[in-house]
Amino acid sequence: MPHTALVVGSSGIVGSAISALLASQGHQVLGLARRPTPQDGVAAVAADLSDPASLAAALEGHAPERVFITTWSRQATEAENIRVNGAMVRNMLEALRPAGSVQHVGLVTGLKHYLGPFEAYGKGVLPQTPFREEQGRLDVENFYYAQEDEVFAAAARDGFHWSVHRPHTVIGRAVGNAMNMGTTLAVYATLCRETGRPFRFPGSAMQWNGLTDMTDARLLAQHMLWAATTPAARDQAFNVVNGDVFRWSWMWGQIARWFELDAADFDGTVLPLETQMADDAPLWREIATRERLVEPDLARLASPWHTDADLGRPIEVVTDMGKSRRLGFTGYQPTDDAFFDLFAQLRAERLIP
Question: Is residue 112 flagged as an active site residue?
């Protein structure tokens, strides 16, 4: 049956995907963001998660039964990430208490649950791959854990159910997003084609040669709705990935061909995109003006730092989804098609030429 759903971070990659899915199935969707972007079938709610008064005013009169938290705020240190992002979740759930309507909260985190936060990413003693939910938390402070703890505490207090979703790198469309590999690679390929620079894999030999997986935002949205509507999935944490595995030594060539480029040979040297693209903002503005693109600001499209973190990891990262499969979730998405669908969408929306 249709419900009222509140999507927190509705302008982001995951938030826009779950908003679109919910709206397509007849749910009343409230899309909360500091600056909401228009979406068909989504009622915009403008609020600042760090401002309890703003949240209380924005949510007055709304009574969502399902809440999907898909956002975070990047801070300079992990201590600040914990303080700010934990408070954002706490403020949101506190603002919803007066209505007494919430039945389920879905929280999106990610594989930093297993890999550690940005300050200790992929370092120290890590669990074996493929990552499994029962491997638990690392012995390190992590804002994902702080967000989970806020959800767990509110659920125990207010009596709603919850689910936690841990995707690998998410492929999807958003502008102004802090973690956006798909659009970053599309912009990088466009710049390489424009300048004749080699389309070169920027990361580590381990990522080039090792197995990996990714998560399409559309499949993640399906998983979140499945968990919210499946009694056996209540009060559970889940990994969620596309269901295929690949090596970047293969995928890099697939992306190159889509952009009609030749993939450069990889010699094992790490050459980060943050370095390669450091001076490209003026060039992108020129391309945007010439091609009549809708976003001339390179920084709002590309997040080289995040793509470098993923592609530069010194360890293989593969994710197990057996828990979801046993409970009946059968969603599958080929990762190369996920990239191609995104690239086509970016081109259709005049975000890339």
Answer: yes
